[in-house]
Design a protein that fits this description.
Helix content: over 70%
Shape: elongated
Structural class: mainly alpha
Mean pLDDT: 83
Number of strands: 0
Strand content: under 5%
Largest sheet: none
Distance between the termini: 45 Å
Order of helices and strands: HHHHHH
Number of helices: 6
């Protein structure tokens, strides 16, 4: 979350993320990192999915010496074990999101179908 805050609040670092995405041939939906919001139950799932999608760019900005020196990103580097955990969580959280959508729309269709 600290990394997301740092990227989102630094135009220069956002530009570096964009350069890293271009170099890795990643087409992000948006460059800003998704931050979790307590009142949005699936925001952590979205944050994890987006971070995994941007993983090469995130690793680049946290290891490239010139960027680490300029933006102090090394302490925010995500360890390989942490990436592995996020990769395992991502599909599980995605299933719960799909279940919620299925429940939400089936509930609303029932109410709409029967006035």
């Amino acid at each position: 979350m600290k990394l997301a805050y740092k990227i989102n609040n630094s135009p220069g670092l956002l530009e570096e993320v964009e350069k890293s995405c271009n170099a890795a041939k990643i087409k992000p939906l948006h460059l800003h990192m998704v931050k979790p919001v307590d009142t949005h139950w699936n925001s952590k799932s979205q944050m994890i999915s987006h971070a995994l999608h941007l993983k090469p760019a995130i690793e680049d900005i946290c290891t490239q010496k010139s960027l680490v020196a300029q933006y102090s990103t090394h302490p925010l580097k995500i360890k390989q074990e942490e990436w592995r955990i996020l990769e395992e969580l991502d599909p599980l959280l995605g299933i719960s999101h799909q279940f919620f959508l299925l429940w939400h729309f089936s509930t609303h269709v029932c109410f709409i179908g029967f006035p």
